[in-house]
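[recover] target loaded
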């Protein structure tokens, strides 16, 4: 267990040279499942903390910044979600957020590690693990890549709350998995996948986004801030089965009673989460589908880009129409 002098420090496989540290008040659980090491401890300032294979998965203080955004962004991209697939998410946080939507009739949660669910129900019963007993929920313990193979046109929203692409989650970042998800999704369906950190994994993000563009006609990238994740930030790969989907604009707003329960997400935050700093936009802009006009991007496109030509053509058509109208007066 990575504890020293009363402090926990993360292992640094995916972020060499840096590590988040939290002061430990009490170790609540330590064990190993069939797939990974599991640690739960009570921290001095962040409440209970869940750690898998040496990496922090959630703390009770800031979990909403991740759970709300990975779930509420795709859920609000869809106008009327009825059927939802959650991949991973054994702590129950994404499930809690999806269950806030009254339109949803069926939720399938595919978490490979049953022990993560059991531990979360025990130590996070008052924070993330609050909705496992919702009658709409079907909990399946299986490899998601295999689980979706025979599914066709079943889901309106798919949320992949995976850990980093090492160990049991490695297959969840491969093109074959995304193709399997698309086959399981309905027309106009939305997929959101945990998308790593722009400060640490930008090359990986670009590669995975390119994988997504070979499968989905609409692809974009959003992010959230969260103190206890590496570099205080994590992103989301956003995809849609329909072409020309503008995912940064919510299709609907949370009802007032739902918005009152949320600590991070709002329609304004939804839109802002897609506006990337210049260094990240340079990578994402190359693979985003559809491309954005200059006013919506942090990077100036080439003068003769496809979008600039389309805007010029639109302007010329409007000008010609106005000229005709004026000549008839």
């Amino acid at each position: 267990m990575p504890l020293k002098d009363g402090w926990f420090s993360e292992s640094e496989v995916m972020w060499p040279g840096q590590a988040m540290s939290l002061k430990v008040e009490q170790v609540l659980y330590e064990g190993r499942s069939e797939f990974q090491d599991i640690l739960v401890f009570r921290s001095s300032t962040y409440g209970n903390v869940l750690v898998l294979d040496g990496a922090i998965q959630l703390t009770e203080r800031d979990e909403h910044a991740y759970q709300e955004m990975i779930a509420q962004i795709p859920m609000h991209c869809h106008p009327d979600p009825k059927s939802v697939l959650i991949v991973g998410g054994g702590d129950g946080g994404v499930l809690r957020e999806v269950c806030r939507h009254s339109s949803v009739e069926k939720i399938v949660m595919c978490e490979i590690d049953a022990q993560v669910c059991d531990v979360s129900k025990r130590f996070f019963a008052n924070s993330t693990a609050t909705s496992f007993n919702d009658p709409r929920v079907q909990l399946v313990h299986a490899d998601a890549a295999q689980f979706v193979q025979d599914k066709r046109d079943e889901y309106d929203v798919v949320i992949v709350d995976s850990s980093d692409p090492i160990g049991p989650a490695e297959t969840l970042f491969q093109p074959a998995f995304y193709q399997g998800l698309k086959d399981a999704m309905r027309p106009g369906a939305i997929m959101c996948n945990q998308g790593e950190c722009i400060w640490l994994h930008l090359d990986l993000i670009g590669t995975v986004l390119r994988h997504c563009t070979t499968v989905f006609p609409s692809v974009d990238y959003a992010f959230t801030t969260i103190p206890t994740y590496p570099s205080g930030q994590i992103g989301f790969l956003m995809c849609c089965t329909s072409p020309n989907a503008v995912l940064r604009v919510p299709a609907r707003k949370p009802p007032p009673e739902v918005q009152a329960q949320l600590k991070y997400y709002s329609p304004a935050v939804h839109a802002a989460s897609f506006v990337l700093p210049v260094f990240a936009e340079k990578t994402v802009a190359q693979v985003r589908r559809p491309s954005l006009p200059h006013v919506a991007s942090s990077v100036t496109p080439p003068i003769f880009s496809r979008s600039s030509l389309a805007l010029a053509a639109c302007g010329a058509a409007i000008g010609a129409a106005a000229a005709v109208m004026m000549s008839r007066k």
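[recover] notes: The longest helix spans residues 306-328.
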